Amino acid sequence: MTKAEKKIIIIEDDKHINRLISYNLSKNGFRPESVYDGREAMHRLSGENFDIVILDIMLPGIDGFHICKSIKENPAAFKTFVVILTARAESQDKIYGNLVGADYYLTKPFSVAKLMEVINDLIALREKDFSIDTHKTMAKPGVSN
Amino acid sequence: MKISLHWKITFIFCSIFILALLSGYLYLSPRLAYYFESGLQDSLRRELMLGRDLLEASLGPAGSGGNIGDADMLARKIGKELGLRATIIALDGTVIGDNVLNKDEIAKLENHADRPEIQNALKNGFGISKRYSYTIRKYMLYMAASFGKARPAGILRLSIPLEAIASLEAQLQKTVIFTVFFVFLLCLGITFVISIFVSRPLIEMSKAARAVAGGDFSKKPAVYSNDEVGQLARAITDMSDEIKDKMEKIKSESTKLDIVLSSMFEGVIVTDQAGIIILMNPALKKLFFIDYDPKGKRPLEVIRNTSVQDIVDRILQGKQRLATEEISVTQPEEKILQVNGAAIIRNNSLEGTVLVFHDISELRRLEKIRQDFVANVSHELRTPVSSIKGYAETLLEGAIEDKENARDFVSIIHQDSDRLAKLIDDLLDLSKIESGKMKMAFLPVDAAALIKRSVAVIENQAKEKNISLKADLPAQLPKIQADETRFSQVMINLLDNAVKYTPEGGTVTISTSIKEKFLQVEVSDTGIGIPESDIPRIFERFYRVDKAHSRELGGTGLGLSIVKHIVQSHGGQVWLKSEPGQGSTFSFTIPLA
Ligand SMILES: Nc1ncnc2c1ncn2[C@@H]1O[C@H](COP(=O)(O)OP(=O)(O)OP(=O)(O)O)[C@@H](O)[C@H]1O
Ligand SMILES: [Mg+2]
Q1: Residue-wise pLDDT tens digits, A33-56
Q2: Under an 8 A CB cutoff, do A109 and B391 touch?
Q3: Residue B592 DSSP code
Q4: Is pLDDT above 50 for A135?
Q5: Residue A98 reports pLDDT greater than 70
Q6: Is-contact B582 B529, C-beta < 8 A?
Q7: pLDDT at A31 over 90
Q8: Which of A20, A54, A90 to mutate to test the interface with B (most CBs of B within 10 A)?
Q9: Minimal C-alpha gap between A135 and chain B (Å)
Q10: What is the interface size between A and B, counted as CB pairs within 8 Å?
Q11: Residue A129: is its pLDDT beyond 70?
Q12: Do A90 and B375 touch (CB under 8 A)?
C-alpha cells in the first residue's frame, strides 16, 4: 500500500491551518481530505474508515473529544489512528484525550516536521502490524508538545 | 383551706377583744348584782325606818292596843307613800294591814309569826328575808321592823320584788352582748385598717413577685415604710429590676441572634448532641423549600441529602470538629452548596453541631466562565501563532521555491499576524475596561462629527463590497457626554460588523433619535442576520455565530463585548433586533451632555 493509498482526513476548522497540514502531507506523498466542522467530520467518518485522523478539538458543531471517542468506540474503525492537534494545552485536556483513546496528542503551535514524523511513524507501525499479521498490537499513545 | 393573712389578723384581734370583754363581764356581773342588792336593801331599810316612824307617830299612847282599822289604813298610806308593799302584823303574827290585799283577803291570811323576818323582828326589832311569796307569786325581799313607843306594838314589813334586781342583771347582760357585738364590728373595722398597713404591702409584694414570675415587670410593690416589710418590698423591687435587666439583655441578645440568622444569606442548621434539629434559619428553609417547622427532626429527614447527615454524624461521633462538603442539589433549582459543619463545644463537652450552607453556584459559574475565557484566549492566541509558525516553517523547508503557493503563504502569515495583533489589542482593551483601568474622559462632544468620522473609517471597506453606507443625521444634533475615542470605537465596531456580515450590494444605515436624556444611535444592515437563539449570547466574549466565517473575516469575537462594556460605562444600553437573512439593527444609547 502506497502512501497515496493511505486514507488521511484533516478535521480542522481554521482554514489556514487545515491548508498548512494538507499542503505538507501532500508534499509527503499522501492525499489527505479536509473537513472544517464537527458535524461534517462525523458524517464522513461514519461512511468510511480512515487510517489516520488529524483532529482539532475546538470545532464548531461537535467537539473533537466526542469525535475521537466515537471513532474508538466504532469496531469497524479499529485500524484508525487518531492524532489530536489542538490549542488545548492543559494537562487535564491531555488526560481527557488519552481517556477517549487518542493515539497522539499534539498541541498548537506545533512543528510541522514533528507532525509529519508522527504520521509517518504511525503509518509504519500499522504496516508492521499487518506484515507480521499476528495479534495486533495497538500503538502506545504518545504525547508531545 | 387557705385563710388570708387579713382574716387571720381580724380573727386574732376580735378574739382578744371579746375575751377581754367577756372576762370583764364574768368578773363584774356578780359583783354588780351584789352591789345592786345591797343598795336595794339599804334603801328598803331607810324606807322601813321611815314607815316605822310614821306608824309610831300615828299610834296612840302606849298600851292603847292595836286598832285593826287603823293599821290597815296606815299600811295603805305607807305603801302608797313609799310605792312598795307594806304589811302591818300584830305581835302574835296576825296580819292587820296590807296595802296590796283587801280586807277579806287579809282576814283569810295565815298567821305570819313563822316568817323568818317577823321572827327576827320580834326577837331583835329587825328582820330580813328573801323568798318566794305565794301570796303575790314573786321572789321578794322582805324587811320587817317592830314598832311601838315603850314596847313593841306590832311589826311593819316592807317588801319589794327581787325582779328589779334580775331585770337589772338582764339589762347588764344585754348591754354586754350589745357591746360585744359592737366591739366585734369595731374590731372588723380596726383590723381592716391594720391589715391595710400590715397585709396590704405583703399582698402587693406577693402579687408583684407572681407577676415577675409570669414575666410582667410593670407591677412593683409600693414602699410604705422603713420597717422590715418596707425593706422586703424594696428588695423585691430591686430583684424585679435586676431580673428585668437580665431578661432584657437575654432578649436583646436573642433578637440580635434572630436578626443575624434571618438576615443571613447563608443557610444555618443547629442540632443538639443527638443530631436533632433545634434551629433552622429562613435562608435555608427557602433554599430547600421547607414550609414547616423542622425542629425535632433529623437533617436527613428535612434535607434529603446523605452528605449533610454524614457531616452531622461525623462531628457527633467525635471523628471531626470541622467538616466541609460540597453538595449539589437539583431540586428545586440546580445549585452547588458548600456545607461547613462545626462542633458546638461548651465546657469541654459536645453539645451539638452547627452547619452553614453557602450557595456557591454563582461562584462556580463565574469560575467556569473565567476558565472558559482563559481556554478561549489560549485557543485564540495559539491558532494564529500556529499558522504563522507552520507557514514560516513550511516556507523554510522549501515551499519558498514553490512559486504557486509561496505568495499565498506569506500573505497568510501577514493576515494571521494582523489577527494576532488585533486580538492582543482587543484583549488588552477588554481587560482594561473590565478592571476599570481604562481612562475615559466624559466630555460634551459633537455626536454628528464623531459618527461621520467613524463612517469615513469604514467607507473603503464598504466600497470594496459595494455596500452603500448611509448616515441619516438631522441638521442639528445635541452634544453627548462621552469619551471621543471610545464612542468612535463603538461606532466603528458596529459599522465593521454591519459591513462584514452583509453580502455585496447591501445597505448599512445609521440613524439617530433623542430618547429622553439620551441619544439613541441605530446601525441597521441588510445582512445575514443573527438567529434568535444566538441573540442572548451575542455580547459574550468570543461568541460568534459562525466561528469559521467570522474568523475568515478577521474577527476575534470580542468586538461586541467591548461595545457593550463601553456603552455601559457611559451609562447607556445596547441591544439588537435581527431577522436571519433580512438584516440586523444594533441600537445603543449615550447620555446627552
Ligand atoms: N451586523 C451583524 N450581522 C450579522 N451577524 C453579526 C452582526 N454583528 C455581529 N454579528 C455576529 O456576532 C458575532 C460577534 O460579533 P463581534 O463583533 O463580537 O465579533 P467579530 O465581529 O466576529 O470579531 P471582531 O469584531 O472582534 O473583529 C459575530 O461573529 C457575528 O456572528
Ligand atoms: Mg465585530
Answers
A1: 999 989 999 999 998 999 999 999
A2: no
A3: B
A4: no
A5: yes
A6: yes
A7: yes
A8: A20
A9: 38
A10: 71
A11: no
A12: yes
Instruction: Write down the pLDDT at residue B553.
Output: 80
Q: Which fold has domain B439-591?
A: Heat Shock Protein 90 (3.30.565)
Ligand 1 centroid–CA B13 distance in Å is 109
Q: The domain B6-169 belongs to what CATH superfamily?
A: PAS domain (3.30.450.20)
User: Distance (Å, rounded) from C-alpha B449 to C-alpha B501?
Assistant: 25
pLDDT at A138: 47
B336 bridge partner residues: B328
**Predicted confidence band at B53 (pLDDT cuts at 50, 70, 90)?**
confident
User: In chain A, whose CA is at the least distance from the CA of B412?
Assistant: A16
Query: What is the nearest CA distance from A131 to chain B, expressed in angstroms?
Result: 33
Ligand minimally distant from the alpha carbon of residue B562: 1
Mean pLDDT value across chain B = 86
The domain ranges of chain B are 6-169, 264-359, 364-433, 439-591
State the Cα–Cα distance between residues A81 and B189, nearest whole angstrom: 120
Question: Per the confidence metrics, is the pTM higher than 0.80?
Answer: no
User: How far separated are the first and last CA of chain A, in Å rounded?
Assistant: 30
CATH 3.40.50.2300 fits A3-125, yes or no: yes
Distance B542 CA to ligand 1 centre (A): 9
Q: Is the dihedral of CA B531, B532, B537, B541 positive or negative?
A: positive
Q: What is the largest CA-CA distance in chain B?
A: 213
Hey, how many other C-beta atoms are within 10 angstroms of the C-beta on B526?
A: 19
Same fold, B264-359 and B439-591: no
Indicate if ligand 1 lies below 6 Å from the C-beta of B583: no
**Does the B364-433 domain belong in CATH 2.60.40.420?**
no
Beta carbon of B498 within 6 Å of any ligand 1 atom: yes
Instruction: State the closest ligand 1 atom to the C-alpha of B544, by its place in the atom list counted from 1.
Output: 29
Q: Which of B491, B541, B560, B566 to mutate to test the pocket of ligand 1 (most atoms within 8 A of CB)?
A: B560
User: Closest approach of chain B CAs to the CA of A20, in angstroms?
Assistant: 7
ipTM of the complex as predicted: 0.89
Positive or negative, the CA dihedral B424, B426, B432, B435 is negative
